[in-house]
Automatic annotation (TrEMBL):
One of its GO terms (biological process) is phosphatidic acid biosynthetic process. Residues 42-155 form the Phospholipid/glycerol acyltransferase domain. The lineage of its organism: Bacteria, Pseudomonadati, Bacteroidota, Sphingobacteriia, Sphingobacteriales. Pfam families: Acyltransferase (PF01553). This is 1-acyl-sn-glycerol-3-phosphate acyltransferase. Keywords: Acyltransferase, Transferase. InterPro entries: Plipid/glycerol_acylTrfase. One of its GO terms (molecular function) is 1-acylglycerol-3-phosphate O-acyltransferase activity. GO terms for cellular component: plasma membrane. Pathway: Lipid metabolism.
Amino acid sequence: MVYPKKNRLIHWFFHHYILRIVGCNFHEVKFDEIAVTDDKAVLLLANHFSWWDGFLMYYLNHKLFGKKFHVMVIENTVRRVSFFKHMGAFSVNKNSRDVLQSINYAAKLLEDPQNLVLIFPQGKLYSNFVDQVHFEKGIWRIIEQAQENFRLVFSATFIQYLKYKKPTATVYLKSIDGNSAYQNIEELAKAYQQHYDSSKQSETEIIL
């Protein structure tokens, strides 16, 4: 397993790099203003459809949550893009016993109220407007281990150009009241699917 690595200089450089490329490549990044508290960590579940996903969620954390950013990333990607580990990335390998280490590490991070942990439950890239959002089972093990230490937030992001030269990214957020709201992975996936469907419907109704 690859763990995050602290280097203040590298982190400072890529922090500003990420904010810059998001600002330069998007007309606007819009998101819901949800309540953020200091007493609990954030577990952010997001759809996965592009190269931009992690950067957009990093930008969102900077603008809204203000937590220490962490993201679960496929191990091959972390090893191939070395600076990811300096920006809070830790690896997961679904075909290895190390997957338990990744799950335990994610749950441990959620014990610290200063942390945000981003996970893409789909596990791989899908179309931005896919109908069904697939959930990998590992996310439920993290939630069970972390218990009540965190705030669960659903994120559904959609990108459109419409009348602008650069795209607009819209991040639809939903904060969940109580981590015990769901009894199993099926209930969690169903709740996220409802949020995703509602968000997609809102996106298709945009008229400029």
